[in-house]
Amino acid sequence: MDLLEDLESLQFEYGMRQEDRILVYLLGRSRGLMINACAHAIFFCKVVRNLRESLQENQSSSPLSNEFHHLDSPDSEELKVGIIGGGQLGNHLARTLLELVPMPAQSLRISTRRPEVLDELKELGIQCFYHNSHLAAWANVVFLCCLPSQLPNICLEIQTKLQKTCIVYSFVAAIPISRLKLLLNHTSILRPQYECAQDFVNVWGTNTEIIAALQDPVILRATCPYSPAGGITLNIKWLEGVVYAALNICTARNTVTPQALLLLNEVFLSVHFKDCEKNSASCPMFQPTDFVSQAYVKNLSEKRSFPWFDLTTVQLKETPFSQHLSASTVLQQHLTYRYYDSFGISLTQ
């Protein structure tokens, strides 16, 4: 409910010249981009957390659990998320991750040039400081929420501190992923790309908090990677990057190929629609050839892990998964259902 709806003098556009009012739609676009950014970050963090938990459970019950723990002990802990940048996006992102993933405050930290203005986040238990390299060395996932002009210096500070398994998730739209790869000398990078339609129905609201907006089924449906509602679309290569990032997490734990596929099926394809439930044979199941070439599969032993994937290349070029995903509407439906389910809503809600 908008309490200002009938109070004309308190509306944002009150007093604006008529010729300037055509630009008011930019408010809706800006809010829509913020909501999309937070929604997709939440989905990504939930995928990573769920996968890590499944890996931990499997390795704990395995007779080789001590060996695995020795190989990758840092990843056996709670998912650690760092945010570089404490502006509007960084602030909203921290609150939504804390509330809607949800994740414990001790597993979330922010590095910003002005930590003194983040007292409300500190009261929630989030550590706020200014030490980018320290944050990068600590985190499993680093969100870049800084200005484009700040990014080169930030990359210099953190590039030698990033672990190979650390995923850098960039919201800096002005810096392409190929440039970011060079600046960081790092291949585990995700960068969502959004495209805005000129004419769209504003479903994003105006005065509602981002957390409340992300609990609205109408708004959540508009953030779905396969939904054109709301006039903001996400490049589907981002979704491919998320799936290959999940494979890299398995590879970092020396998870053999069959087990990695089982875990991916559990994380991404465990939610089914009614027609699929009636005929389970029609449900998609990931196969090795969905991610690597047939020639590579011939030499891929079941006792080996998948190779390490360059996530920047995945998002820039065609991959086996690109072809599989574009050709399978059933797979697209399952991923859509999984996205909705991660927020606790259904298509019929």
The CATH topology annotation of the largest domain reads as Rossmann fold
Q: H/E element string? A: HHEHEHEHEHEHEEHHEHHHHHHH
Strand content: 5-15%
Radius of gyration: 21 Å
Strand order in space, largest sheet = 3-2-1-4-5-6
- Apparent shape: globular
Outline the biggest β-sheet: 6 strands, parallel
GO molecular function, one term: pyrroline-5-carboxylate reductase activity
Family: Belongs to the pyrroline-5-carboxylate reductase family.
Domain Pyrroline-5-carboxylate reductase catalytic N-terminal: 80-168
Function: Probable oxidoreductase.
Fold and architecture overview:
There is one protein chain. With 349 residues, the protein is of the alpha/beta class. The protein has 2 domains: 23-237, NAD(P)-binding Rossmann-like Domain (Rossmann fold, 3-Layer(aba) Sandwich), CATH 3.40.50; 239-342, no CATH class. It is built from 16 helices and 8 strands. The strands form 2 sheets. A 6-stranded parallel sheet has the order 3-2-1-4-5-6, sandwiched between helices. It has a two-stranded antiparallel sheet with strand order 7-8. Helix 1 packs across helix 3 (88-100). The longest helix has 36 residues, at 25-60. 38% of the residues are buried.
